[in-house]
Amino acid sequence: MSNKRLNIFSILFYLYSAFKNIFVFVIALIVAKPILGIVITLILVVIVLVRYLTYRYSVLDDQILIKYGLFLKKELHIPYDKIQVIQHNQWFFLKPFNLEQVILDTASHSDSKSKVDLRVISIDAGQFIETKHAKSAGKKIPKEKDSNYSDNCFYRATTHDMKLFAATNFSFISAISLITVLIFQLFLNDKKSFESINHASFYFVISFLVGFMILIYIVGFIKTQLKYYKFTVHSEDTYFRISSGLFKRKVDKIPIDKIQNIVFIQNIIRKMLNITTINVDLITENDDENINNGLLIPFIKSQLVYEKIGQSFSYVCSKPFLSFTSYKNAFWLFTRNVLWIPLTLLIMLFFIRDYIFVNVLGLAILILIIFSVLTIINAFIKSKNVEISLLPLNKQGIVKIKDVHLFNYYTNFVQWDKIQSMSLKQTYFMKKYHNLAHLEINIRVGEHAKKIECRYLKYDDAKKIIDWYKLS
Question: What average pLDDT does the structure give for the chain?
């Protein structure tokens, strides 16, 4: 496979990349000034064609060679042993032609320059690259099999679990919150424009928001099911291979030796429905979005979590030999840390009430009251679930940290040798108030540090964890 051109389907991907950010602008320009719009469109198409025609790749025995450029010819040499991650993507219209997209990440930079995107090549070429990369790393050569029917299937998602997961995806709330804030800003900044609005019109705005929220929820539900269609995890010798997607079949890899931390996650609804998400924090040379963002299993029955993960990481099933929880009266401390925000806003609304539309003022107060109640409930749940434990593993051990953030339950498992540092934080008032402290554990994720915190422990308890870390 020497000096080959990418498959002609690559032109579609190049065109998409060229137009995706300016599509609306180009359409508007064609409507307003047809000749200018058509000229710009033709220029972009010519650029895409030149890029396609001047791009060559060679899959050699010792490296991948990329040649590109029209006036300034460039060569990119990629030895197989320098490749960190190989990602395979396959859109539904490529499958009948045995074609796929292959992304090579050398992790040589902290940006997109470390990635080489072979837009559309044959599956045979992709498999050849995988084989050469495995040989260069001294790993077992991957078998050429359909990703859905491999003998080493670690986990295969059920349709029922996928629907529960999609139905409990509340990421749309952030978009709704932003829209609500913008509407309130209009009311606050331009009261005169809304003085003539009657109650019916105001309720129409509220109904519109609710309808828009339902629409976003439905779109998110469908999008989640398409994204995780036939989600499957296979366990290879040195990595997990993850495949999912209906229209775009995506295959990712999670190297086992790069796993820093295993995290079990549940929001409060999924906890009641017994659905758990399993994430892993990875150590990589850069923040690599091609390693599936550390998502190992998006949804799995809670009863199966320890059984499945225990197959590869037996320590998660171990019983702790040392365990501590937050101070017994930490509830009011967790409440105090957040409740001051809605209380401050309520006081501000009281002083500017004469300058705000009446209906908006009432709705703002209602939202702040609801937020305050949710804050108190979250603080209560958090105070009952914060826990840090030590689990046995060879001569060292594992730190298990349980915590709650915004109605999301987190359980972290960190091996001793993966911990970058541990530290204690204690204010003057924490020392005076029953001698409490915050314990911070830092691990490396990507090129950055991730902080895992266990708050309001007894100082003596936190010190025992620190002593274990220093002496292990």
Answer: 82
